[in-house]
């Protein structure tokens, strides 16, 4: 589809002219949230998230890729792109997390930006949330240049635990947990169960009786403490208590059930064992019903407090997730793999599982890049400020940004404006694409689905509409040309001094497969990729590479000097097996050598895997 | 912020020249901004120094919990752990503190320097150096001692190792050769616009060239025609004494077309790409008199380019200049438990770490011929051991117990107990003090200072009289120090000592910490490594189950690596082979008996693996670092579940399978009988 016709452009221009009120580009001062003011901010952001339509997020990580080829490239399929993003998310750390709940009404954006500084401090001395993490030097330097304050981040950054880590931590802490009331009694009691209950019950009654007696008796402190020593009575929170050891969850449940009879003044607590099972049930005797409520309230509070401290920043993720508001990002694959791995659970091995797991937490994720791709001149722009200024020049779509709660103190950083800019860009794009963002909240299904068409697309180089764009062939012809993965061949072992052009001319003379149109691009300085524009030739070429006898001339010479070739599946396998060597050639070598290569063969890649043709900037490599 | 405060302090305090009261002024912090002047100063101090103390602050120590120092580290494994640490983590602070004996003042003068360093990648190098690992706890630790991360990242001095420098120069030479020989490729003209553009450029260039030829004196007519050029795409300039056209505002594709046109149609024009000073590049078409002149010009341009690139590489050496100075001056270097420090120095400033400890040690010794480790000194010398009286030999506690007069900056003349101690004066720039109190623990510069003080005091206690000492004498060759020189703790936990000059290892003989353990020792061939069992399996249970099968005395000790792995040390090496054999058989058999076998608790879950100690070494040598050992083993590519070892008694191969079956069957039946 042609996103914006010239006619439409003109119309937008004319409407723009009528009401130009350009604000000079300015910096917003954004609330910086650290460990010290985190608790206070939590309530604010909660209400802002609940009253807003969208939540923009933007992450600042300590790195993006460990080696040039590990960047997500246009020739990556959804699978390999995910695997690369997964590797990065597991390796690097989030130091800065911008959250910006916002609402768009006509041309007005109301945004409530927050910048959270994170540091994976082990608050619990448990090697959690992260034992170590990588930093890419260039990323740190550019962060420093933008004014990022590493000292305050490391000293006063908010820590966190993922959902999975939290449950592991609860067990490791081993704090007694308030036993949940058993609503439905377990119906069938075996004889063993009954015997067990009776035994525990009489034991408990005895204990309770003695407790009541002694507490009424007037003794001096010495006698009481002596009695405590002799009888081994325990106290919990200065109330008498008794531990009942249990061997199974079943027994624990039975004990709690039995204790419900005495619910007026007894509080049962579950003491967890290391493996997560119940080790014992602790019975605390309170003096009255009021005292019992007091204790229960206190326990609940304590647990809440501890958990808040443990969860840390994840509270924010949880409340965004609970609100089920659409999440707006720029580069969703990168950001959401990070979010998933740091705050939800370790990343699953495949992109499909990831999408399923993610959808449970965030049902609607919109990447502004996907909206941008619909506007043909913007297809290639990936930088937010550039995109905003280009849109400004091309379409007069004034967006009025309103930020009601600006930080009082003058933070002199240009850092952390990203989330706000995403809001602005999103609103601009919606207005150009004639999508009404307000409809997300309403019941107008048609409008809501217009936005949903762009949601949850995680492959950075795919568009919502897969058809190539007609109309402006001239400039963008290169970019819309697609090729099946089967027609790609990876070549390596040619030394690190060969340019793509030299390689192409060498290949041209070496084999008949290269008599038709083909292209060569370097992926990194160790490996090149050959694109056969005619179907089937890649296979011919790979077959020749496997048989030394058929080789002639230049090719034979190159092979004898170490040239190797493999199809896309080998590349796929290198990513799948996590063979992340710093040179792609080494990874491919390992993937070829892997014993599993034969067994798990090519069942997964289908010929329908299409990826866009790409332009690799040689200067980047 | 902190830096600014320091500068303020420095300026206000520099007025107080030679103050004698206890004073606080910061040590010399060195960042990019004052690096050159600081190194020039340091150079003179180093030349005059009697010894130089060093200390490093890193972003971490162990890349995974199971890579931390363990008692069950054989020396080669320990080296692999150190190597892994030095390769993965970054050095963020480097303390250098030259000490010079001042015979007039009868005291040492120390010049503590604290260098912030950061691998900035000013020259593209191998991709391994573009990232580094941070251990969360170490970062937290640094933060606790007020490490200034901003100064480090924004202002830290960069560096290039000798190897990286050679590599960069080699690559530059190759590129130079390539470019001299390479013929500019023809750009195929695909579209009609390209053809038109090329044609137009051809005409323009011809016009210009002809204009030059017609009127060599400058050509007013020519200038006129080009000044008409509306968007100033062409500009007449002179380049290397030749008339030239500077090309502006073309796309890279257009420039390539122009280059191609120049090449094809004009023998006397050269297309030149000039790298500007401030990274802006310029494209020129230069007129040359002849073909030979053109080649000359090309060579000149290439030489320029090369010179610039070489300068860039030289400039990127940065902090390594300090290391080169230390090395070339052959000064005595003092460190405190500095094996890891030296590994970092090697990997960051010399070159990649060798695979074997011996090779590493040899390489270090070549670069730094005299090293004395104060931790070794305090723990191996009897006089000092007595003086330390079993107190801790960690850097700060040793400093407190040996040099209290410096630590507390008390005036030593009024305290008789300190009368025997060596005086140390601190000089920073022009400020000097005999009782300096403003050091911050765990700041590399201050740690280096403390190390040096400990060494000076230790020499004093050993009876080295500095008053009789001549500056030409090398301290390391002093008879009282000689036997401690060039010895380092490879592993402090095990008391493994390595001699830098010979590569020999010795176990520390007299350490009265845990005598029992030292007597028994660790026999690595008796060790089995088990991993992948259920993570809630208790160590005691593992020991119990193994003892049930192999006898109550079969297991001498057991050591947990992490929740997924243990080392089990058997009493006999034969038991290692037996254990692995039994385990393998149990893995293969699915019958009911195997469920009853005591080892089945350990094998529960079906992913328990076992192997001899050698496998631990293999896994340690991998560059990967997963947090859990079981994950690491999988990531390293271990697909087998048991790696059998040959028993000491050779068994004929054809019998082996039979035997294996029988043996397992026996153990199982024996156990069933017991039940």
CATH class of the largest domain in chain B: Alpha Beta
Total beta strands of chain A: 20
CATH fold annotation of the largest domain in chain A: Nucleotidyltransferase, domain 5
Please outline the major beta sheet of chain B. 9 strands, mixed
Quaternary structure annotation: heterodimer
Decide which structural class fits the backbone of chain B.
alpha+beta
- In DSSP terms, counting alpha (H) and pi (I) runs of 4 or more, how many helices of chain A? 23
Q: What name goes with the CATH superfamily of the largest domain in chain A?
A: Ribonuclease H-like superfamily/Ribonuclease H
Mean pLDDT of chain A: 76
Number of helices, counting only DSSP H or I runs of 4 residues or more of chain B: 27
Straight-line distance between termini of chain B: 73 Å
SS content category of chain A:
alpha+beta
**Number of individual domains of chain B:** 3
What is Rg of chain A? 31 Å
Radius of gyration of chain B: 34 Å
Note poorly predicted spans of chain A: 1-25, 463-479, 598-621
CATH homologous superfamily title of the largest domain in chain B: Ribonuclease H-like superfamily/Ribonuclease H
Indicate the low-confidence ranges of chain B by residue numbers: 1-21, 218-228, 412-418, 512-519, 650-662, 664-675
| Biggest interface | A-B, 40 and 41 residues
Q: What form of chain B results from the Cα inertia axes?
A: flat
Helicity of chain A, in percent? 40-55%
What's this model, at a glance?
The complex is a heterodimer of chains A (621) and B (675). Chain A has 621 residues and is an alpha+beta fold.
Describe this structure as you would to a colleague.
The complex is a heterodimer of chains A (621) and B (675). Chain A is α+β, with helices and mostly antiparallel strands and 621 residues long. Chain A has 3 domains: 29-161 and 313-452, Ribonuclease H-like superfamily/Ribonuclease H (Nucleotidyltransferase, domain 5, 2-Layer Sandwich); 177-298, no CATH class; 481-620, RRM (RNA recognition motif) domain (Alpha-Beta Plaits, 2-Layer Sandwich). In chain A, 43% of the residues lie in helices and 16% in strands. Chain A contains 23 helices and 20 strands. In chain A, the strands form 4 sheets. In chain A, strands 1, 2, 3, 4, 5, 12, 13 and 14 form an 8-stranded mixed β-sheet that branches. A 5-stranded antiparallel β-sheet of chain A has the order 7-10-11-9-8, sandwiched between helices. In chain A, strand 10 and strand 11 (278-285) form a beta hairpin. In chain A, helix 3 crosses helix 12 (332-344), helix 7 (191-216) crosses helix 9 (249-259) and helix 15 runs parallel beside helix 16. Chain A is elongated. The two termini of chain A are 34 Å apart. Chain B has 27 helices and 21 strands. Chain B is α+β, with helices and mostly antiparallel strands and 675 residues long. Residues 1-21, 218-228, 412-418, 512-519, 650-662 and 664-675 of chain B have low confidence and may be disordered. Chain B has 3 domains: 2-158 and 319-507, 2-Layer Sandwich (Nucleotidyltransferase, domain 5), CATH 3.30.420.10; 184-301, Ribosomal Protein S8, Chain: A, domain 1, CATH 3.30.1370; 523-674, 2-Layer Sandwich (Alpha-Beta Plaits), CATH 3.30.70.330. In chain B, helix 22 (573-588) crosses helix 27. In chain B, the strands form 4 sheets. In chain B, strands 1, 2, 3, 4, 5, 11, 12, 13 and 14 form a 9-stranded mixed β-sheet that branches. Chain A binds chain B through residues 62-63, 66-68, 93, 119-122, 127, 130-138, 140-141, 143-145, 149-151, 153-155, 274-275, 497, 501, 578, 582-583, 594-595, and chain B through 59-60, 63-65, 90, 118-121, 126-137, 139-140, 142-143, 148-150, 152-154, 174, 178, 185, 536, 625, 627, 635, 637, 639. Strand 6 (132-136) of chain A pairs antiparallel with strand 6 of chain B, so a sheet runs across the interface. Chain B: Belongs to the CAF1 family. Chain B: Its cofactor is a divalent metal cation. Chain B: GO terms for molecular function: 3'-5'-RNA exonuclease activity; RNA binding. Chain B: Pfam families: CAF1. Chain A: GO terms for molecular function: 3'-5'-RNA exonuclease activity; RNA binding.
């Amino acid at each position: 589809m042609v996103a914006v016709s010239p006619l439409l452009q003109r119309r937008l221009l004319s409407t723009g002219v009528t009401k130009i009120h350009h604000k000079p580009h300015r910096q917003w001062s954004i609330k910086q949230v650290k460990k010290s003011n985190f608790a206070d901010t939590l309530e604010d952001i909660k209400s802002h998230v609940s009253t807003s339509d969208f939540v923009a997020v933007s992450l600042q990580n300590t790195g993006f890729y460990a080696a040039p080829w590990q960047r997500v490239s246009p020739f990556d399929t959804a699978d390999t792109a995910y695997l690369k993003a997964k590797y990065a998310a597991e390796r690097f750390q989030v130091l800065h997390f911008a959250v910006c709940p916002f609402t768009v009404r006509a041309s007005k954006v109301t945004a409530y930006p927050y910048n959270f500084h994170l540091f994976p401090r082990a608050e619990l001395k448990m090697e959690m949330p992260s034992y170590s993490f990588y930093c890419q030097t260039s990323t740190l330097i550019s962060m420093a240049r933008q004014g990022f304050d590493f000292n305050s981040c490391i000293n006063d950054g908010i820590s966190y635990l993922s959902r999975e880590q939290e449950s592991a931590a609860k067990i490791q802490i081993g704090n007694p947990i308030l036993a949940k009331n058993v609503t439905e009694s377990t119906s069938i009691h075996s004889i063993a169960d009954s015997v067990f209950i009776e035994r525990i019950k009489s034991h408990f009654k005895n204990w309770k009786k003695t407790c009541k007696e002694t507490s009424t008796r007037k003794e001096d402190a010495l006698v009481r403490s002596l009695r405590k020593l002799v009888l081994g009575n325990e106290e919990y929170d200065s109330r008498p208590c008794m531990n009942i050891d249990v061997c199974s969850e079943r027994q624990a449940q039975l004990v709690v059930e039995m204790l419900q009879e005495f619910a007026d003044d007894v509080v049962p607590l579950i003491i967890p064992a290391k493996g997560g099972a119940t080790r014992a049930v602790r019975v605390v005797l309170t003096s009255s019903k009021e005292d019992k409520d007091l204790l229960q309230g206190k326990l609940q509070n304590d647990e809440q407090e501890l958990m808040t401290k443990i969860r840390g920043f994840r509270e924010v993720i949880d409340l965004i997730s609970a609100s089920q508001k659409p999440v707006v990002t720029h580069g969703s694959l990168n950001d959401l793999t990070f979010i998933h791995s740091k705050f939800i659970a370790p990343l699953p091995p495949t992109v499909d599982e990831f999408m399923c797991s993610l959808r449970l937490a965030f049902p609607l994720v919109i990447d502004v890049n996907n909206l941008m791709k619909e506007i043909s001149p913007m297809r290639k722009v990936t930088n937010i400020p550039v995109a905003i200024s280009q849109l400004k020049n091309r379409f007069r779509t004034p967006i009025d940004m309103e930020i009601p709660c600006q930080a009082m103190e003058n933070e002199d950083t240009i850092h952390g404006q990203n989330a706000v800019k995403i809001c602005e860009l999103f609103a601009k794009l919606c207005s150009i694409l004639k999508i009404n963002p307000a409809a997300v909240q309403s019941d107008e299904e048609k409008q809501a689905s217009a936005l949903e068409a762009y949601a949850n697309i995680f492959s950075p180089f795919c568009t919502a509409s897969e058809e190539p764009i007609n109309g402006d062939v001239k400039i963008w012809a290169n970019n819309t040309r697609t090729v099946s993965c089967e027609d790609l061949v990876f070549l390596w072992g040619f030394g690190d001094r060969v340019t793509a052009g030299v390689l192409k001319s060498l290949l041209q003379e070496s084999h008949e497969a290269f008599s038709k149109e083909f292209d060569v691009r370097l992926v990194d300085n160790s490996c090149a990729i050959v694109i056969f524009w005619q179907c089937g030739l890649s296979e011919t070429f790979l077959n020749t590479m496997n048989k030394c006898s058929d080789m002639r001339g230049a090719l034979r010479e190159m092979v004898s000097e170490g040239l190797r070739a493999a199809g896309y599946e080998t590349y796929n396998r290198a990513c799948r097996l996590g063979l992340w060597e710093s040179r792609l050639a080494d990874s491919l070598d390992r993937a070829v050598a892997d014993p599993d290569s034969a067994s798990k063969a090519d069942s997964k890649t289908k010929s329908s895997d299409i990826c866009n043709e790409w332009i690799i900037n040689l200067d980047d490599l | 912020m902190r830096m600014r405060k320091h500068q303020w302090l420095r300026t206000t305090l520099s007025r107080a020249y030679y103050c004698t009261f206890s004073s606080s002024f910061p040590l010399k912090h060195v960042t990019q901004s004052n690096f050159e002047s600081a190194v020039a100063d340091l150079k003179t101090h180093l030349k005059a120094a009697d010894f130089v103390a060093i200390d490093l602050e890193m972003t971490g120590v162990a890349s995974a919990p199971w890579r931390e120092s363990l008692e069950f580290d054989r020396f080669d494994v320990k080296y692999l752990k150190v190597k892994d640490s030095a390769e993965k983590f970054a050095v963020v602070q480097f303390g250098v503190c030259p000490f010079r004996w001042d015979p007039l003042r009868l005291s040492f003068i120390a010049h503590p320097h604290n260098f912030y360093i950061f691998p900035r990648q000013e020259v593209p190098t191998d991709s391994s150096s573009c990232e580094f690992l941070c251990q969360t706890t170490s970062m937290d630790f640094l933060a606790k001692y007020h490490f200034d991360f901003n100064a480090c990242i924004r202002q830290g001095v960069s560096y290039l190792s000798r190897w990286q420098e050679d590599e960069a120069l080699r690559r530059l030479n190759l590129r130079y050769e390539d470019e001299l020989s390479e013929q500019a490729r023809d750009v195929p003209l695909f579209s009609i616009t390209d053809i038109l553009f090329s044609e137009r450029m051809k005409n323009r260039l011809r016009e210009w060239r002809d204009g030059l030829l017609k009127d060599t004196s400058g050509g007013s007519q020519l200038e006129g025609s080009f000044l008409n050029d509306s968007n100033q795409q062409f500009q007449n300039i002179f380049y290397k004494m030749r008339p030239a056209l500077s090309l502006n505002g073309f796309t890279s594709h257009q420039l390539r077309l122009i280059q191609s046109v120049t090449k094809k149609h004009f023998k006397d024009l050269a297309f030149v790409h000039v790298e500007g000073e401030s990274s802006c590049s310029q494209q020129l078409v230069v007129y040359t008199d002849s073909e030979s002149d053109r080649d000359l010009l090309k060579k000149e341009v290439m030489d320029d380019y090369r010179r610039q690139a070489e300068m860039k590489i030289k400039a990127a050496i940065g902090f390594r200049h300090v290391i080169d100075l230390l090395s070339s001056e052959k000064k005595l270097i003092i460190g405190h438990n500095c094996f890891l420090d030296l590994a970092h120095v090697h990997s960051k400033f010399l070159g990649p770490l060798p695979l074997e400890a011996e090779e590493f040690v040899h390489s270090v010794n070549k670069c730094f011929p005299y090293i004395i480790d104060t931790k070794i000194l305090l723990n191996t010398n009897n006089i000092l051991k007595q003086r330390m009286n079993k107190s801790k030999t960690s850097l700060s506690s040793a400093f407190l117990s040996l040099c209290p007069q410096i630590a507390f900056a008390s005036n030593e003349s009024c305290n008789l107990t300190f009368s025997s101690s060596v005086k140390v004066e601190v000089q920073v720039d022009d400020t000097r003090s005999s009782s300096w109190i403003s050091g911050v623990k765990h700041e590399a510069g201050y740690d280096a200072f403390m190390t040096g003080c400990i060494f000076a005091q230790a020499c004093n206690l050993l009876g080295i009289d500095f008053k009789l000492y001549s500056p030409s004498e090398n301290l390391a060759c002093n008879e009282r120090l000689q036997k401690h020189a060039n010895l380092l703790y490879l592993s402090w936990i095990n008391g493994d000592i390595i001699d830098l000059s010979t590569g020999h290892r010795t176990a520390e003989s007299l350490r009265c910490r845990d005598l029992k353990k030292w007597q028994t020792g660790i026999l690595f061939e008796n060790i089995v490594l088990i991993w992948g069992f259920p993570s809630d399996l208790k160590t005691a249970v593992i020991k119990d189950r193994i003892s049930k099968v192999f006898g109550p005395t079969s297991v001498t000790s057991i050591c947990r690596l992490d929740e997924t792995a243990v080392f089990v040390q058997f009493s006999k090496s034969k038991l290692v082979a037996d254990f692995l054999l039994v385990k393998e058989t149990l893995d293969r058999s699915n019958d009911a008996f195997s469920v009853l076998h005591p080892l089945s608790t350990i094998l529960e879950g079906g992913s328990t693996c076992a192997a001899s100690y050698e496998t631990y070494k293999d896994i340690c040598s991998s560059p990967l670092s997963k947090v859990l050992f079981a994950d690491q083993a999988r990531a390293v590519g271990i697909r087998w579940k048991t790696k059998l070892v040959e028993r000491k008694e050779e068994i004929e191969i054809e019998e082996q399978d039979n035997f294996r079956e029988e043996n397992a069957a026996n153990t199982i039946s024996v156990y069933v009988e017991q039940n």
